[in-house]
């Protein structure tokens, strides 16, 4: 084993042991900073399993590495989660499980689409959400299928279009679908 490999092994072992130590720690043994971050779980800490404490300790470590902007987004996500009903939380968990079962390339595509959507101005995101939610399920399914058939280049061209250009493209597409087929095959009966 090379020196670098040995050092990486030692560091990863230390990381695992340090987070496991937090999982096996009594509440009073936590540092003030750890207690502050884990305060919402103070009452349950003693009854939590080591696995639950381990997950929380990894969360504390991620939190400490976050920028203020990332922390703000994480707080908002946590508040949304806490405001959900148990049924809503269960739907989210199931959707996450389905996502995890997707092939890596499909997960990558979904993440890229989400990034694109997040970069849109807030008013544009809201308009798209309202429009999407007002569509019947069959129409949403058809749009998904059409978008999945596009090549990456076609998707990029679509993204680069102005709203007006996209509107015209959709109108042309709808007109073609509504018009009767032309050509010899149609004329022969």
The end-to-end distance, rounded to whole angstroms, is: 77 Å
Helical coverage, percent range: over 70%
How do the helices and strands follow one another from N- to C-terminus?
HHHHHHHHHHH
Main beta sheet: strand number and arrangement?
Answer: none
Low-pLDDT segments: 2-21, 184-189
Description:
The chain has 189 residues and is mostly helical. Among the domains are: 1-74, no CATH class; 132-173, no CATH class. The chain contains eleven helices and no strands. The chain has helices at residues 3-23, 32-38, 50-65, 68-83, 86-101, 104-119, 122-134, 137-149, 152-160, 163-178, 184-187. Helix 1 (3-23) crosses helix 3 (50-65). The longest helix is centred in the N-terminal third of the chain and has 21 residues, at 3-23. It is elongated. The termini are far apart.
Could you name the key traits of this structure?
189 residues, disordered N terminus, disordered C terminus, mainly alpha, single chain
Fold topology:
Elements: H1 3-23, H2 32-38, H3 50-65, H4 68-83, H5 86-101, H6 104-119, H7 122-134, H8 137-149, H9 152-160, H10 163-178, H11 184-187
């Amino acid at each position: 084993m090379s020196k670098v490999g040995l050092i990486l092994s030692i560091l990863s072992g230390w990381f695992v042991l340090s987070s496991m130590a937090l999982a096996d720690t009594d509440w009073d043994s936590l540092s003030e900073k750890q207690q502050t971050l884990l305060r919402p779980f103070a009452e349950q800490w003693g009854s939590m399993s080591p696995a639950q404490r381990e997950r929380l300790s990894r969360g504390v470590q991620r939190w400490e590495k976050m920028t203020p902007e990332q922390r703000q987004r994480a707080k908002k996500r946590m508040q949304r989660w806490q405001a959900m009903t148990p049924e809503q939380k269960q739907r989210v968990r199931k959707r996450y499980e389905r996502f995890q079962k997707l092939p890596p390339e499909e997960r990558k595509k979904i993440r890229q689409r989400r990034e694109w959507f997040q970069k849109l101005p807030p008013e544009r995101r809201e308009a798209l959400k309202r429009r999407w939610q007002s569509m019947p399920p069959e129409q949403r399914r058809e749009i998904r299928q059409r978008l999945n058939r596009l090549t990456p280049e076609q998707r990029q061209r679509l993204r680069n279009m102005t709203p007006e250009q996209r509107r015209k493209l959709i109108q042309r597409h709808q007109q073609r679908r509504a018009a009767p087929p032309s050509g010899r095959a149609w004329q022969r009966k």
